[in-house]
Amino acid sequence: MEFRDLKRQYNVLKPHIDYAMQEVLASGRFIMGQQVEELEEKLAQYVGAKHCITCANGTDALVLALKVLGIGEGDVVFVPDFTFYASAEAVSAVGAVPVFVDVDKHTFNIDTKDLKLKIQFVKQIKTYTPKAIMAVDLFGLPAPYSELTAIARANNLYIVEDGAQGFGGSIGNKMSCSFGDIATTSFFPAKPLGCYGDGGALFTNNDEWADMSKSLRMHGKGANKYDNVRVGTNSRLDTLQAAILLVKLNAFANGELQAVNQVAEAYNSGMPAEVKIPFIPSGYTSSWAQYTITLPAEELRNQLQEYLKQQDIPSVVYYPKPLSMQPVYKQLPISVGKCTVADMLSKTVLSLPMHPYLTAEEVEYIIETVQNFFKQE
Ligand SMILES: *Cc1c(COP(=O)(O)O)cnc(C)c1O
Is residue 32 situated within a structural domain? Predict the structure, then answer.
């Protein structure tokens, strides 16, 4: 069994994907072919944002977003302690300082109470300027945007939405990647919407920021490619990847997102009482980038993972180490100490196989195996 079975997806979509790729090969337009713009229009429409600007990967999307907002040296960005490293790495890459915020033990997303404390703390130090909140939609669940928006307004902060895992999630009738002042996503193959290599995108309603993102991703271009008005970078989405994503976006919106929600529902109703299932607040939906359970203790989590492995069921610990405990962040200029919930989660979470092409039999087998683990305890 595979943790995320991309081969099975390809087998289903093969005729469409092969055709789309051949069209690109025949066109000879491998960089910024028409599929790129077509995809950007479709993505913006799906998400409900005015602009979508694709780029080379989700990490670049975050770096571009921070640059567009003018964030750099002397600035602070508040980052949840429990996320993929790139959420903080992008902040460091532009020269700003990440200040880690604990997460909510139920949603795994940024804890707004701790966020308020950390903002006050940084304001008191005075040496750094708080500039933005990096709101991560972890495992597919949107961050608490109504609270975050109120906090951002009260403290004059931008919200950068890291929707690398959130694409497809929603709050009410608003989709992920439409919540931040600027939002980003990733098309890394294993993300909710993935391509066949690296890819990413930014979303914003701000015309000026959209123009600047387009300039930055193409060597700081002005009127054209050979008119260079700022230091940018080379970060474009390949036409081939855009063509693949056009097929995959269609499948995502017309079945796959529903299918992962069905898998999650089956898991939820089958998990034994010893296991804490993912919590989805009322009005929210997840795109299930991960289906992550929490065990009562670290040893039990590790034993369950080993037991599953023996029964040919892959599982992964996302994430084994909070960001504040990573070697790279040993020497931060602003040290805020341990985030206790992030630390606890890193020891007790386990993500189970999750993708739209899991069969009912496979899901049943996984549930039964987890149940059997607790019976033999
Ligand atoms: C995957 C991921 C990224 C980075 O995306 P890449 O396309 O791999 O660069 C950033 N943030 C989060 C939360 C992610 O999961």
Answer: yes
